Amino acid sequence: MRPQPPPPRPPRTFRLPTLPKPNPTAPPNPPNPTAPPNPTAPPRPRPTALTRPDLSAKRVLDLVGALILLGVFALPLLAAAGLLYAGRRGVLVREPALGRGGREFRTWRLRTRDTGRPGVAVERCGLDALPQLLNVLRGEMSLVGPRPEAGTDRPERLFVRPGMTGLWQVGARSDLPWEEKALLDRHYVESHWLGMDLAILAQTPRAACLQRHA
């Protein structure tokens, strides 16, 4: 008797693997730092001028100049503050002003208008506005710029910081009419540069001395 052949094996069946369904609540995959940049992706927004630190030559001049002036006039300022304090009417007064971009702040000034003879003496020495050096260090004012004002109807003045001195001061200061002061402020906003600032700073002591002895 011949042996019976083995029964045929059933054909094998293959099933495709099932992929997991995407979960809409799952966080996206983190970007691969080594992957090449996608040329079609939109560029990242760059930081604006308001978020970047101001490292311009004018700002460096303001910081260095304010620190030097505070060191030079520290003792006269303390003496003036002591003289005003003797009047028991306060030493400092803060006045509202608009800075660059319309930012509101308050300027520092020694109280001289209601302290009698001590205030007159301090004002004649030109020390009443020196506390504004603190505003310069804080970035609210500049050494050179338009006159600080509480409000303005000329928006071009808000493109720069107000200054402790300017063309209005070296040009006979209060002897100029208001219209000419406004023109000088506008000329400075449109044409200022570092050389102009240095020239104005160099002329300010002489102009202040002439004004006190006028």
Which secondary structure elements does this structure contain, and how are they paired or packed?
Layout: H1 57-72, H2 74-85, E1 92-98, E2 104-110, H3 117-124, H4 133-137, E3 142-144, E4 163-165, H5 167-170, H6 178-191, H7 194-212
Parallel strand pairs: 3-4
Antiparallel strand pairs: 1-2
The residue fraction in helices comes out at: 25-40%
Low-pLDDT parts are 41-52
Lateral strand order in the biggest sheet: 1-2
Oligomeric category: single chain
For the CA atoms, what is the radius of gyration? Answer: 35 Å
The residue-averaged pLDDT reads 76
User: How many individual helices?
Assistant: 7
- Bin the strand percentage: 5-15%
Query: What structural class is derived from the secondary structure elements?
Result: alpha+beta
Outline the biggest β-sheet. Answer: 2 strands, antiparallel
Overall shape: it is elongated
Termini gap: 145 Å
One letter per element, helices H and strands E, the order comes to HHEEHHEEHHH
Number of strands: 4
What report would you give on this structure?
The chain has helices spanning 57-72, 74-85, 117-124, 133-137, 167-170, 178-191, 194-212; strands at residues 92-98, 104-110, 142-144, 163-165. With 214 residues, it is an alpha+beta fold. The strands form 2 sheets. It has a two-stranded antiparallel ribbon with strand order 1-2. A hairpin with a 5-residue loop joins strand 1 (92-98) and strand 2. The radius of gyration is 35 Å and the shape is elongated. The chain starts with 56 loop residues before the first helix and ends with a helix. 21% of the residues are buried. Residues 41-52 have low confidence and may be disordered.
